[in-house]
UniProtKB/TrEMBL annotation:
InterPro entries: 6-hairpin_glycosidase_sf, 6hp_glycosidase-like_sf, Alpha_rhamnosid, Bac_rhamnosid6H, Bac_rhamnosid_C, Bac_rhamnosid_N, Ig-like_fold, Rhamnosid_concanavalin. GO terms for molecular function: alpha-L-rhamnosidase activity. This is alpha-L-rhamnosidase. It comes from Flavobacterium hydrophilum. It comes from the Bacteria. Residues 462-807 form the Alpha-L-rhamnosidase six-hairpin glycosidase domain. Residues 1-21 form the signal peptide.
């Protein structure tokens, strides 16, 4: 596997600078709405951001000047005809709101920034770009939706839906020289776009999924270089995706379906003489369903017959006399929106490690890694030879595929050869979660060189690395990376392999926070909050799955509460206040709905799933039946609702809804009183039936009376350390707060034991049993096969947060969200002897690399420019500390001692700290 998967991808420098600062300070990563040079956004006052990169210490921005122009020529001439901010005295370099002339439909904007720092002025010589999309429904009105809403001879509407891909083409004649051209496309469920035979863009499985009755995403491409004066050919292939649902007319009370694939497209052309033209979808487009993609179904796989390939179908030379005219069809119903996050992409390759023949004449291919994507094959054979590839995560004892956990997902690709030399094929409109592939029908003896795994997830960069002295923890981190990336599919899904693959809210309540250290997931989760908002019922209810492809509206606290906790993550990790302002009314509506319907006697009496996936008393069970292991549902929902109220109080300030604060204060006071009256055993100092979850939630949320905090904590420690012999006993809910709570109350050593355990139940037990991702169950190798997903992330809980914030010491100060100031306070005594971690924050790269021996600690720190860090050193003896080989007293006089630590504030730069 390529090393880039586990290492930070450094941002390419975009600028050169004056001689004063050359090779010292640069401005990088200019972004609009946290996207690089986005086309077709629908935000008319977008937020602009940049990073300052420096190899000198103590660089602070003191002011900035943004210039935005309608053309590149204007910008290069310093003619900011859209906006010149002037010199603004500010240290803010993230999320600066555009405040220039009103931006309209299809507006182009080119921009650059001059940054003033305490080290001098940095004048950029290059620039960034964004464009506005189509802002009004009326502008789409004359663009008709087209498709073909009939079945072909081998199609079926059934539990195992089959539908061939739709191929569409349109010849256009551009009679003038093209100056610029952009395509605006909505292709439901999935599309590929071609111009003159060439695929446009490197995206796959586009666009991102939504509830298409609520909102439909359009993508925009600059296609100027693909067009020429004269005849040109536009072509699209439409796949099914989530639109033509994987299970048609099967449990319609539960599973949504949206109809047959369809599309709407505009090609907007500007000619060199200043005139403009718009080519739209209409019934003059030609269409066929008789192409090589016979079926494409996310659960069941893709079938491709290369004998039916139509060479040159997307070029002007192709004869389409046997094609039919496309039909006008009903629009999906949802409002049209710009897609404000990247599409999926092939992000890397995996080469298989072995291939073995079976007794029945098939072959088992082992990728060596449970991955998500598909398999590319290379083959030579006769016309009509048919290769079948069935995908699974593991093998049975006899070496055959283990498929019981796939439920009714067929997970099978079929390729029929055309018989013309070497053929290279990979599917277009599906993905699989797999490590093993059963190959049958291969015309010769296959070798490893015949196959390459294609890794597919959202086109977002890896932002975090982590390595420590504990090999088990390192392996868990790698498994987490693979599990998280594989389940990013335009929305966060629960698993990639069986007949589910749904965006369950409860899986990401805290998980999204930990994931944010590994991936730049801001735009993904901002989009997901919109999905949740759109899924809200008129009376305020929220589902457990959003978009609500499954109609699971049962009301709950711990699952839908993710709507609020993910918003808090976006604010804490990325400093995104606008997302809070946008979502606050819907969040409040849900909180009021739950209060009015389920708050009884000041306790929230609504829980649906309990502490899901507690380690059961038997290795064969999915869920525990032992009451001593299960936590009271009213305790879970009341504690969680209390915590959500404290977050909403913070949100009310951000959203200028101060009038709501008094109500939140009143509710939290009442719930805390009722909670302790009902659940706190003041004689034995524990909550409810004394599960670890029952105790960790009130400790983490501040519900425990101050005089009993230590006693409740010590009781919880006894349950973990003695009763459970230093092992996990929590499910999805308790595990979200376990590691940080243990460490914050002084038992980082016990948290480390949980993190490094190799015996059941533990994350290390998964590793010891061959896991290369994270399981759905603590006993995922022995429990009921139908619940044995081997690629879930929900049981990570707060483990990754603990890795970064408590072991590496990389934490955003809540008072200055988005890592404007970093709190660097590793637990050096938890049990590790070294940690080397990095995180690419919105301000730049943060590094924490510490090693300790019996008598010394060496700690290398990197703080990004225009940021700072509060650093905790494990000593009160200043004479034992050096910073960059200087005695602490010589380096700085602004430090203090606090609870056996020296607390030192460091400005940006690189430092080596030594403590004897």
């Amino acid at each position: 596997m390529k090393k880039f998967f586990l290492h930070v991808t450094l941002i390419i420098t975009l600028f050169t600078f004056s001689a004063q600062a050359q090779n010292k300070i640069s401005v990088t990563n200019l972004q609009c709405e946290m996207l690089n040079n986005p086309e077709g956004i629908d935000v008319v006052q977008p937020r602009l951001s940049w990073q300052i990169k420096s190899d000198v210490n103590d660089v602070k921005q003191t002011a900035y000047q943004i210039m935005v122009a309608s053309t590149l020529e204007n910008l290069n001439a310093d003619k900011a005809d859209l906006w010149d901010s002037g010199k603004v005295t500010s240290n803010k370099s993230v999320n600066i709101i555009y405040n220039g002339k009103k931006l309209g439909d299809r507006q182009n904007a080119f921009w650059k920034v001059t940054v003033f720092t305490n080290k001098g002025e940095i004048k950029s010589t290059e620039n960034a770009h964004f464009s506005i999309g189509i802002l009004t429904y009326a502008d789409w009105k004359s663009t008709r939706w087209i498709g073909y809403e009939k079945l072909s001879k081998d199609d079926s509407v059934s539990q195992y839906s089959r539908l061939s891909a739709r191929y569409l083409r349109k010849e256009i004649n551009l009679k003038k020289q093209v100056k610029s051209a952009k395509v605006y496309i909505m292709g439901m469920g999935l599309y590929e776009l071609y111009i003159n035979g060439n695929k446009i863009g490197d995206q796959v499985l586009a666009p991102v999924p939504t509830d298409y009755t609520k909102n439909v995403k359009y993508n925009v491409f600059d296609v100027t270089s693909q067009l020429k004066e004269g005849k040109n050919m536009l072509g699209t292939i439409l796949g099914n995706g989530r639109f033509f649902a994987m299970r048609q007319d099967y449990k319609p009370y539960k599973i949504k379906s949206f109809g047959f694939p369809k599309m709407a497209l505009q090609l907007f052309v500007e000619y060199t003489d200043g005139s403009k033209d718009i080519i739209r979808t209409d019934d003059t487009w030609k269409l066929t369903t008789d192409g090589p993609i016979l079926s494409n179904n996310e659960y069941d796989g893709e079938e491709y017959d290369a004998r039916k390939e139509m060479k040159g179908w997307a070029t002007t030379s192709f004869d389409d006399k046997n094609w039919v005219n496309a039909r006008y069809v009903q629009e999906p119903g949802g409002f049209y929106e710009a897609q404000m996050m990247p599409n999926m992409k092939i992000m890397g390759d995996v080469k298989p490690i072995s291939i073995k023949a079976t007794a029945k004449g098939t072959y088992i291919l082992d990728m060596g890694q449970n991955m998500v994507g598909w398999l590319q094959l290379k083959v030579k054979g006769k016309s009509g030879d048919q290769i079948t590839m069935k995908f699974a995560e593991s093998l049975q004892a006899d070496g055959s595929l283990y498929i019981a956990n796939l439920r009714d997902a067929k997970t099978t690709d079929v390729y029929t050869l055309k018989g013309e030399g070497e053929e290279i094929w990979e599917p277009r409109f599906i993905f699989h979660g797999f490590r093993f592939v059963e190959i049958s029908g291969f015309p010769t003896k296959p070798t490893l060189d015949n196959f390459v795994g294609k890794v597919v997830y959202d086109d977002i960069k890896t932002t975090g690395t982590f390595e420590s002295s504990d090999a088990t923890m390192n392996h868990i981190f790698k498994n987490a990376w693979w599990g998280i990336s594989g389940n990013y599919k335009g929305m966060p899904i629960d698993c990639p392999q069986r007949n589910e693959r749904q965006p369950w809210l409860g899986d990401r309540t805290t998980g999204a926070y930990g994931e944010s250290f590994l991936f730049d997931n801001q735009t993904l989760y901002a989009k997901w909050l919109d999905d949740i908002k759109y899924s809200q019922t008129q009376d305020g209810g929220l589902p457990d799955v959003a978009p609500a492809f499954w109609r699971y509206y049962g009301d709950n606290v711990t699952w839908p509460g993710t709507y609020i906790t993910v918003g808090d993550m976006l604010y804490q990790q990325f400093g995104d206040a606008e997302v809070i302002k946008k979502q606050y009314p819907s969040m409040k509506k849900w909180m009021v709905y739950m209060e009015e319907n389920y708050l009884q006697n000041d306790l929230m009496d609504k829980d649906k799933y309990g502490d899901w996936c507690v380690p059961p008393e038997s290795l064969e069970l999915i869920r525990s039946k032992d009451p001593a292991r299960l936590t009271d549902g009213q305790l879970l929902s009341s504690a969680f609702y209390y915590q959500l109220l404290t977050i909403m109080k913070k949100f009310a300030v951000i959203a200028n809804a101060d009038a709501d604060i008094a109500h939140y204060d009143d509710l939290t006071t009442r719930i805390k009183k009722a909670f302790n009256a009902k659940f706190l055993n003041t004689e034995k100092n524990y909550y409810a039936n004394n599960t670890v979850t029952a105790n960790v939630l009130p400790l983490a949320f501040g519900l425990v009376p101050e005089n009993l905090i230590d006693k409740v904590f010590q009781n919880m420690v006894h349950e973990v350390e003695v009763t459970k012999n230093g092992h996990i006993s929590t499910g999805v809910i308790g595990t979200q707060f376990l590691m940080r709570t243990l460490t914050n109350f002084g038992r980082g050593d016990l948290a480390y034991k949980l993190a490094s355990n190799k015996t059941y139940p533990s994350w290390g037990y998964m590793v010891e049993n061959g896991a290369t991702t994270i399981w759905e169950l603590w006993n995922g190798n022995t429990a009921d096969p139908t619940m044995n997903s081997q690629n879930h992330v929900m049981l990570l809980g707060d483990l990754l947060i603990w890795y970064y914030e408590n072991m590496a010491g990389i934490k955003s100060n809540p008072e200055t969200p988005g890592f404007k100031q970093i709190i660097m306070k590793p637990d050096f005594n938890a049990g590790l002897t070294f940690v080397n971690a990095s995180y690419e924050s919105i301000y730049g790269l943060i590094k924490s690399d510490w090693k300790k021996t019996k008598n010394t600690l060496e700690w290398k720190i990197t703080i990004p420019a225009n940021s700072s860090a509060v650093v905790y050193l494990p000593t009160e003896n200043a004479s034992s500390v050096t910073v960059n080989k200087q005695k602490l007293a010589q380096f700085s006089s602004s430090y203090k001692t606090e609870k056996n630590n020296i607390v030192l504030t460091l400005e940006s730069g690189s430092y080596v700290l030594n403590v004897k």
